[in-house]
Structure formats: C-alpha cells, structure tokens
Amino acid sequence: MIYAVRVTSGRENIVVELINSSIVKKKLNIKSISYPAEIKGYIFIEGELEEITKALQGVMHIKGIIQKPISINEIEHFFKKKESTITFNIGDIVEIIGGPFKGEKGKIERIDQIKKEVTVELLEASIPIPVTISVELVKLVKRG
C-alpha cells in the first residue's frame, strides 16, 4: 500500500533522508519512499501502515499521515518523464511566469536545447539584464 505523508513544505528531501535512516535503524519493511517535485509538502511511502507509522516516529517536519491508501494510478503521472521540446526562437518576446522575475517580459537571446533553458534580456530594465531560466518558466507573448 502507498500512503501520503504531510511534511513541512520545502523539507521533503530532508524528511526522506531522516525516514530512510529510521527504516535502516529500526529494520522496518518499507518498500519505497518518494516525492514528486510538483507536490510540495507531501511524500509517498510504500509499505504497511503500521511499519510506516514506526518509521515516522521522532522524525522532524512530519505533520501527519493520510490514513487512506493511494493507488499507484493516482500518482504515477508525477513520476513519468516529461518530454519537453523547446518551441521558442531567438528574438521571441516571452513573459516570465515563475521565479524572482515573475511578470517581467523579455526577448530571447539564446536557447540551450540540452539544459532546456533560455537566456532572456529583460525589456523593461533600464540596463539590459540577461537572465537564464528554464523553458518551463516562460510563456510566449509574441513571435520575433
């Protein structure tokens, strides 16, 4: 069975490491621990509820366990690799939709196909500032 555990948002990685240490130390039968980046504040643990409860005892940043088991079908889409192709061209005008420059518009100056990043020169800045960000954090406003 797979159970969702509520944890402090942003601390998922630390919690997974602490739970893993607890499992090894207590010799518990837990099959897997994972957390998709898209879901903040939750991790998923595969095992029996009693074993999971023992593993969570004394672990920091745990807010609670959801007692109802989750089927793999409900969460498998979070773990499938997403193929993203870059559909932008140099000179396109884009809006930044995430990160510290959220809401800013810029012109694409460079595209890195391997890292799936674009370098954008902010339009409304008094001094041209190149910003390199993931293609997932920009949306097309106007073709160049």
Assigned CATH architecture of the largest domain? 2-Layer Sandwich
Morphology: elongated
- Report, as a whole number of angstroms, the end-to-end distance: 51 Å
Largest sheet: 5 strands, antiparallel
Spatially, the strands of the biggest sheet line up as 8-7-6-5-9
What's the pLDDT, averaged over the residues? 90
Strand fraction band?
A: 25-35%
Q: List SSEs in N-to-C order.
A: EHEEHEHEEEEE
* Strand elements, count: 9
In helices, the fraction of residues equals 10-25%
How would you portray this structure in words?
The model has no long low-confidence stretch (mean pLDDT 90). The protein is α+β, with helices and mostly antiparallel strands and 144 residues long. It is 22% helix and 34% strand. It has helices at 12-26, 49-56, 72-79; strands spanning 2-7, 30-34, 42-47, 62-65, 93-96, 105-112, 117-122, 130-134, 138-142. It is elongated, with a radius of gyration of 21 Å. The protein starts with a strand and ends with a strand. The strands form two sheets. The chain has a five-stranded antiparallel sheet with strand order 8-7-6-5-9, with no helix packed on it. The chain has two domains: 2-79, NusG, N-terminal domain (Alpha-Beta Plaits, 2-Layer Sandwich), CATH 3.30.70.940; 93-142, SH3 type barrels. The protein has three helices and nine strands; from the N terminus they run βαββαβαβββββ.
